[in-house]
Amino acid sequence: MNPVSPLISDAAFALTLALLLVAPLALAGVALINTGLGRSRSAAQALLGSLAMVAVAAIVFAVAGCAFAGTAGGASHIFHLAGKPWSWLGAGPWFLGGLGVAAPQAQLALLFELLAVGLAAVIPWGSGMDRWKLTAGCAAAAVMALTVFPLTVHWIWGGGWLAQLGANFGVGAGFLDGGGAATVHLLGGICALAVIWIAGPRKGKFPKEGLATALPGHHAVYVLFGCLLALVGWLAWNVAGAVIFLHAPLSALPGTAVNTVLTAAMAVAATFTVTRVRFGKPDASLCANGWLAGLVASSACAGVVTPGAALFVGLVAGIITPLIVEVLELALSIDDPSGAITVHAVGGLWGLIAAGLFAPMAGQFIAQLVGISALLGLVLPLVYLLFWVLNRVHPFRVDGDGERIGMDLHELGGGAYPEFVIHRDESYR
Q1: What is the mean pLDDT of residues 322-336?
Q2: Residues in a beta bridge with 344
Q3: Rounded Cα gap, residues 421 and 417, in angstroms
């Protein structure tokens, strides 16, 4: 093993590596939640798709995406503006070249990113459930892992221009995103929005007359158990990110874990209360979305806020989650089965804003706003353009017959629950 760099001790290296081996539980949790929120006749395709997209995204990122992501302090493409260097794209080796001789902190960062690209790919898959072809989803994951994910990673984690805002302009400590609220969740939510715009809603979701039709998820147990799995993964994810990207000392890590738990706990309590007041009884799927939105928000701020602020962040996330889900569906006719836009995009945005509001560094709020503006103003149009072109080459949406009989039978030749009778969907009468 290479000697540990001055930036990270032996103990911190061992702890962070162990945490990253646990972090994939967050992926498992999100995959289960997505599957449970979809229809029973598409369950096997949904879970297989999550597995396939993680694999495709990891391979593409390892082959080429890692070169564009680069590493902090490594080679990059730079242009000068206003007398300041702006690093906009990494220029590292392909095929994870040099991993064995890289500094330990850079090795951990690459492992973190390899896991992060898989999670970012799974997020939009949930939004396209019950109508998105498996092969098209894998192609979208490959495009994302090759282009927008490395670009965002370099800007934020790889020493790019957003990370340099503090050094170049004295704006806080630069754009902060210790756990991936921007690089994973906001990006994943942006991709989900693009998929929904391109693929359109599920058949029968928005009839020509009347309100949106409820198409409830088929397995609440998957959804709620996925929430518990996600908590374990998120704790590992946020603490590891605090070490790698925020350079937190070991003494600060218990606080990061505490803030992660508090944010999720307050978020689910708030969503539970809101849905009980509005509907007379708490809604399981919305409570799960509230819990996940709290975890997503914590990805941005758990390492830089106090426990009191973490509770406030969770409170806001939990209140707005069911309200935004309703607005997107009823007012904007957006069919998002997994709630990825609300949970990951909006939850990530709120967490990034909260990090700027409550972080102790002067000017941090401005740095966060600059980063958010860049992602929404530059990355969102780029994602939509790339996915639009991909859809022209390989259409995203399955044909009507495939959607009617279910994605499992149409794409896999068999259902997830062959011994059970699947009720006919009333929307196809």
Answers
A1: 95
A2: none
A3: 8
